[in-house]
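Morning. Coffee machine broken again, so started the prediction first thing and wrote up yesterday's gels while waiting. Chain of 259 residues, entered below exactly as on the submission form.
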Amino acid sequence: MTQSMRRAFLIKRLLGEQPRYRDLQIPQDTAEQKRLLRSLLNIRMPGKISDDFLAVQDEYLREETAAKGITDIADLSPVSEGIYLWQGDITTLRCDAIVNAANSGMTGCYAPCHGCIDNCIHTYAGIQLRLACAEIMEKQGHAEETGKAKITPAYNLPCKYVIHTVGPIISGRLTDADRELLASCYRSCLKIAGQNGVNSIAFCCISTGEFHFPNDIAAEIAVRTVKNYKEQTGNDMEVIFNVFKDIDYKIYRELLAAD
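Came back before lunch.
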């Protein structure tokens, strides 16, 4: 089955779950088909689906990620012992765990084709990730607290695990409490990673972007918290600071060069 055939199969099955969309025509354009499929994956509520759907979805997503190009931590050069800086799409990174900047609902972003990292990670991991997160939340019985972390399998991503953490949302003046909550995100992720035998972890720029934490202060907290944790615990876990924007790369490069 080609990627085009897989995509058509997945779209038809997902449209069939949505009575209001059952008569929607699948566009001929490949880019529009991809956008439609991603949108359908994004809006689908947590739930099980047939094994044949999962088999096709898994093959499709792995092929799409391979086509984007996978970066292995083994091919990166550290900026200091056990510390890396890498600019790129975190869903294409092969390491033990990547960190997802989640919201308090913890089941991903439901906005079709939204540009946030939460949406991207859930899209390319597959629908299994949303169900796994929903099961964790149902068992927990309440929204996820800011500064905590949960771990799930990564399913179709090149990494082994996704660690989900909810960072502080900044709507006014930045406070010391905001700073501590962000530091807690990094500590919680490192702690749960260590408990699960993770040897390498990639952090995104938690709470920046949609959550409006100032990029430079967020980076300072990230680097300081990670280095303090490694020194205090003696943990030799390899840490990748993953950035997507040029401004964040510049900030982290200067911070890490100064140490």
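The mean pLDDT is 95. Going to sketch it on the whiteboard this afternoon.
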